[in-house]
Design goal:
Elements: H1 2-6, H2 10-14, E1 17-21, H3 30-47, E2 52-59, E3 65-72, H4 79-90, H5 95-100, E4 102-106, H6 110-121, E5 143-147, H7 163-183, H8 191-201, H9 213-231
Antiparallel strand pairs: 1-3, 1-4, 2-3, 2-5
Helix pairs in contact: 3-4, 7-8, 7-9
Length: 232
């Protein structure tokens, strides 16, 4: 799912909404929760035909399933609409769940979008897909998309780099990641951890997670520019 999220246009994500859907004290297993989400999304698309988005299923500490969604293509969805429809789909009958079972947040900035996506939507489960250890059971894929989500994909731009140029860009990405890790107090024990992450995901995947993509693009163009100057 991380690669899919990284392909979304920045403008689409920054104009989007974040939704959280939870269950009351009594909750179903993961498979029933996914069926509830399907019904909720059907209602959402009927009410807001232009809506599209991504969803992620996770387990709370108490073992209850809950969902995080990015809604694209819609500027505003009243919290009352989300709360009432999720309450009806779940059928809990718990008035406290109606009041506190959902959350709707507007994206405040690019940095806010990056933080939310990295924390909730794109993170990989340590137990792996379909793991039963978190209490959800064997539910299959724990993420998905809906609506015309492809309309929100960015244009793919490809740059050809030789090994020396790729190594220079990789060092830039490493330094940027380390700088961000220091700011949030999560500096890895060794820089090797950053290098491993970079090799695992590839250079092309790093742009969305580095704050402003202009930084990476600027350094990339500078590297290519030096090559062209040397050629002339």
């Amino acid at each position: 799912m991380q690669k899919l999220v990284s392909k979304l246009r920045v403008s689409s994500v920054c104009a989007g909404l974040f939704l959280t859907l939870t269950y009351p004290r009594k909750f179903p297993d993961g498979n029933r929760a996914k069926r509830d989400l399907k019904v909720f999304v059907q209602r959402l698309l009927r009410e807001y035909p232009s809506a599209a988005g991504l969803w992620k299923l996770e387990a709370q500490k108490r073992g209850a399933p809950h969902f995080h969604l990015i809604i694209l293509g819609v500027e505003h969805i009243p919290h009352e609409w989300v709360a009432e429809n999720w309450y009806e789909v779940v059928g809990s009958g718990d008035i406290h769940h109606l009041a506190a079972g959902t959350e709707v947040r507007r994206v405040k900035s690019y940095q806010h979008a990056v933080h939310y996506v990295a924390k909730y939507i794109a993170k990989e489960s340590a137990a792996g897909e379909g793991a039963a250890g978190d209490g959800l059971g064997e539910v299959g894929r724990r993420w998905g998309h809906f609506g015309n989500w492809r309309a929100h994909l960015g244009e793919l731009v490809t740059f050809a780099l030789d090994n020396k140029e790729a190594a220079k860009l990789a060092r830039v990405l490493d330094l940027k990641r380390l700088s961000q890790a220091r700011r949030v107090g999560k500096l890895p024990a060794r820089k090797r951890a950053i290098r491993k992450a970079r090799r695992r995901h590839g250079l092309f995947f790093s742009q969305f997670w580095l704050g402003s993509p202009d930084f990476v693009l600027g350094r990339l163009l500078a590297i290519i520019g030096r090559r062209e100057n040397e050629a002339t």
